[in-house]
Amino acid sequence: MKENESGKPTLASRWQRIYDRCLNLWNYYSSGVWEDRRDNLKVNIIKTANLTVRTFMSTDLQSKACAMTYRTLLAVVPALALLFAIGRGFGLQSLLQKQVYSYFPSQSKALDMAFSFVDSCLAQASEGVFVGVGIVFLLWTIISLLSNVEDTFNQIWGVANGRSMFRKVTDYLAICIILPVLMTCSGGLQIFMSTTIQKLLPFDAITPIVSWMLDCVSYIFGWLFFVGAYMLIPNTKVRFKNALIAGMIAGTAFQILQWLFVSGQLYVSKYNAIYGSFSFLPLMLLWMQLSWLITLAGALICSSAQNIFMFSFEKQIAAISSNYRRKVTLAILTVILQRFKNAQKAINISTISESCMIPPRLAKIIVAYLLDCNLIDRVAPPNTQELDEDLPLQPAKSLEYYTLGNVLSVLASHGETGFIPDFNDSFKEIIKLCDNITDTVKASNQNVLLSDIPITLPID
Questions:
Q1: Tens digit of each residue's pLDDT (9 = 90 or more) over 345-365
Q2: Predicted structure pTM score
Q3: Whole-angstrom distance, CA of residue 83 vs CA of residue 95
């Protein structure tokens, strides 16, 4: 560090120190944090934010939000019909209508038309020529929308398989009952309680406190709505802690969007003289797209918070050497074999990663490779209709088969070979030397059983 005559650092040296500090922080936040094995709140928040931003930029959630906006527009009347049908059951239909009018104060004519569509839809569902046909059509429209939402959530979570048709019908019906009830309570409770409290407590001094409490209740029900969506819709196990954090963030952002949208409606009313009721459509589309973007971003935060350990040592895993990969592969296979030999409970990927202190992503890659080599199998419980990626694992053959020589031979020969034209004729000597090495390794380790090799797990 350069110093002036008085011994104090110069201005250039100070700027250089600030620059180096900022560069070190950037390197840590952008990539170095994945090599940090500390499990504390600060490191986990940085990892979650890092993974969320990276995935947001790579998955193009903006386009997904646009697609969901189009699909929602097709199902908006059936969805409102279902919401108002539940609200009518709770006696909150008029309160919900008042709240919707308060959301769009300058679009009363367009809302009158929308409510007439909803009333017609409910009338057809309850008084149709064929009993139940209207209700079936109404539910099918909602189920198809939820199916598209599930596909989008599964893409965010990296889940390959969706629900079966039976589970779609049962799970979606539960979602159609639970989530609208929470949304109805969130929308109608504030109006209902404020009207009741004003009758019971006519004192103006209590009004700000009561209004603040009602706003908190509305926020809580909004949070619960998103928590329920993040836990019920993806076809995977979502921890409540992660869903709660993401639900609070998404619910708060949605309430802020609602406030901005309601405030903006007051300034849009002067454009009605030009556009008439048509001005409602682009504003509604904008609101839908931003709402879906908030919802998908919350799902991304939930997925990132739950899967941050899947990306530990990501750079090292991408550049892992073949020798080290082979060692880790043999270690995982040996753990599975010895647990089977000792009649212990079958182990899954999560437990392997935790007990062997292997990064979860590397453990998942190696287990998938062992499955492709037909060296291990998943243990599916009875009456299991869908295959879970994190099912317990067991040997695919008898323990006598798993000699070190046989396993190394299987691992070395797995995959496509012999597809390069004239390769064998051009490189006969090289191929012969490589085959001799493989045969020698197999023969010299033919009597070494993996199930007999002593191991000591870091966490047992």
A1: 888 888 888 888 888 888 888
A2: 0.67
A3: 12
